[in-house]
Design a protein that fits this description.
Strand content of chain A: under 5%
Order of helices and strands of chain B: HHHHHHHHHHHHH
Mean pLDDT of chain A: 88
Distance between the termini of chain A: 9 Å
Distance between the termini of chain B: 23 Å
Radius of gyration of chain B: 22 Å
Oligomer: heterodimer
Helix content of chain A: over 70%
Number of strands of chain B: 0
Low-confidence stretches of chain A: none
Number of strands of chain A: 0
Strand content of chain B: under 5%
Helix content of chain B: over 70%
């Protein structure tokens, strides 16, 4: 009962967050900024400015523009592209699925690696692997994705070795998994962005578990250290890491923007850059809401998941 | 949340870092760590290039010196770029903008975030709740996405970029400041100041702020790496300030197509941004360890 109430409250908070986000997105693009000025420039003829305002429906009161846009968004009709009048969903098409696939693949690769690195570092605390991995994490955590991605291209695709392709070539209508070799570098770039954070928290959580009484008990029973770490300690150490894992999966939703542009991967990140360049406001607004939506949902699932796997927190709910 | 921030937050939650009063101690302890020293060295070199570099540029930023994308153009060290301009000169000229914008936006974000965090911690109750919930909402948005949304119709003017980058820093700074200040507002000297009838600004600014300076200093460095990364990412995507202005991130964007034939136009700015962010990150980590260590009563 307590849990149901918590979930309802958490979902309502998520919806509220998305409403606020929609106000921010709308305000930045259509209220504070002027799409017509951005498209035509500041020295445009008043007549053509007026005509374009009329055509894009920017003459309506701001509140009406906002509510119309929001109702459209909720009912699955996010408007038409400014540049060619095609519905936004049609413009994006497969790109949404391509991006979701890239995010999912990166999560599936990076999270297990991060858990393994953190666990191994904790089990061999202050040994060579621990200090090397923590130094590497520190360096990688500070570097922006576009720097990591480009350094990988320099190292593995062009200047030093030519192992993987530097660009992803997916033709329209083609599934992104037809050429997995081309996905190695994009996934690796996102992985290097996730592993430092998750492995650090995993290591700390693991160290705490390894110092607990029941682990001492397992060791005294004479179980091999490997079984103790991977069988007994690991499941208990993952709980506290869940939140950070979720934050990092949510991070992937933003991370794909840069990574898709580095590797020319046909997803919403690439579409977003084009839309910003062309001042294609409806497309920008839709992609922003989509990414924010993924962000909110992942965080919500993590909060609920953490509560469910942590008895201590579960009993604290009233 | 970053690695260091997570550690700091863990320290704050467990009450281990409540009050780094001995600032000098923190700085000395941080300087005793190799990571801080290496970080400071990297920062000094890169800031030196950004600030003093323009004095040594052999050519002007937009001067035509030879055919485009020619790695061995005569009279140049690193060849020419997309428009036949000197790569080395543009590299020396291109650090100022990104560094200046990053520092200014970090300072604004820090000031606003710290103010919100202090007010929330001091007032508690409803105001605290409203402020921190608002911060959570701002959190629900990837920084780069927000910046891209903002430049769509507001344009890529410097003030737009500075304000939006500052805005993305506010929630995290507010959270860290509030966390550190919660332990301070309970202390006797705050009660004493209240009894003396000191103004609220005095209490927040003169009594509480100095006692959260340690965590705030760590946070300032972290936010600086994020600001550089964010402004860099905008430039990399082609939304930097000013067309054809020499700028590290924009150089990467322009010269990337010729990565295999004329690599220096891309490599020099990549290395510069990489070393700068890593340097600032190392300093932040050193300070973070010192802040956590000093209060545990042993040298870090």
């Amino acid at each position: 009962m307590g849990i149901a109430k918590f979930i309802v409250k958490r979902v309502l908070l998520g919806v509220l967050t998305l409403v606020v986000v929609s106000i921010v997105v709308f305000a930045l693009t259509q209220a504070l900024g002027d799409p017509v000025e951005a498209i035509l420039g500041r020295e445009a003829q008043p007549a053509s400015v007026a005509a374009m305002r009329e055509q894009l429906g920017l003459n309506r009161p701001v509140i009406t523009q906002y509510t119309d846009w929001l109702t459209g968004l909720v009912s699955g009709d996010p408007g038409v592209s400014f540049t060619n009048g095609v519905p936004v969903l049609e413009v994006l098409g497969d790109r949404i699925w391509n991006s979701l696939f890239l995010m999912l693949l990166s999560a599936l690769v990076s999270i297990p690696i991060a858990i393994a690195v953190g666990t191994y570092a904790a089990a061999r605390r202050d040994k060579a692997f621990d200090s090397t991995s923590s130094a590497t994490s520190l360096v990688l955590a500070s570097m922006p994705e576009f720097v990591t991605g480009l350094l990988l291209i320099v190292l593995l695709a062009t200047n030093v070795w030519q192992v993987f392709p530097a660009v992803v070539r997916i033709r329209p209508g083609e599934a992104p998994w037809v050429d997995l070799g081309a996905l190695v570098l994009p996934v690796l770039t996102l992985t290097l962005g996730v592993v430092p954070y998750v492995s650090r928290v995993m290591r700390a959580s693991m160290i705490e578990v390894l110092e607990s009484d029941y682990i001492e008990m397992a060791r005294l029973k004479g179980l091999p250290e490997r079984t103790v770490v991977w069988r007994h300690a690991l499941p208990n150490a993952i709980g506290p890491t869940l939140q950070v894992i979720a934050i990092n999966i949510a991070y992937l939703a933003g991370g794909v923007i840069v990574v898709e542009n580095i590797f020319n991967y046909p997803g919403i990140g690439l579409a977003l850059r084009d839309a910003v360049t062309d001042v294609n406001v409806p497309v920008v607004q839709f992609i922003a809401m989509l990414i924010a939506g993924i962000y909110v949902v992942v965080n919500l699932l993590a909060d609920v998941g953490t509560i469910l796997v942590t008895p201590r927190l579960r009993t604290r709910l009233r | 949340m970053s690695v260091i921030e997570a550690g700091l937050q863990a320290g704050l939650d467990s009450g281990r870092i409540d009050q780094p009063r001995r600032h000098r101690g923190v700085l000395v302890a941080a300087l005793g760590l190799w990571r801080t020293r290496i970080g400071l060295l990297l920062v000094a070199v890169l800031v030196g290039i950004a600030v003093l570099g323009p004095l040594f540029a052999p050519y002007g930023g937009t001067e035509f010196v030879g055919p485009p994308f020619n790695a061995d153009a005569p009279g140049t060290v690193f060849g020419t770029d997309k428009l036949g301009q000197d790569v080395w000169s543009r590299f020396l000229l291109g650090g100022r903008t990104i560094l200046l914008l990053a520092v200014v936006s970090t300072l604004i974000g820090l000031a606003v975030g710290a103010a919100i965090g202090l007010v929330a911690a001091y007032n508690r109750g409803r105001l605290d709740n409203v402020l921190m919930r608002t911060m959570d909402v701002v959190f629900a948005f990837p920084n780069l996405l927000l910046a891209l949304v903002a430049v769509t119709t507001l344009g890529r003017r410097s003030w737009v970029i500075v304000l939006i980058v500052a805005f993305t820093a506010v929630p995290r700074v507010a959270r860290i400041t509030r966390g550190a200040a919660l332990g301070v507002v309970e202390r006797d000297f705050v009660g004493a100041a209240e009894a003396l009838g000191e103004s609220r600004t005095h209490i927040l600014g003169r009594e509480i702020l100095p006692n959260v300076a340690g965590p705030l200093l760590v946070e300032a460095n972290l936010r600086l790496t994020y600001s550089i990364a964010l402004i860099g990412a905008l430039g990399f995507l082609g939304f930097g300030v000013g067309l054809n202005q020499p700028d590290w991130a924009q150089m990467i964007n322009e010269n990337r197509p010729a990565l295999s034939t004329a690599p220096w136009g891309t490599l020099l700015p990549i290395f510069a941004i990489a070393l700068l962010t890593v340097g600032v990150g190392l300093v932040a980590d050193g300070l973070g360890r010192a802040v956590a260590g000093v209060d545990r009563g042993r040298p870090a």
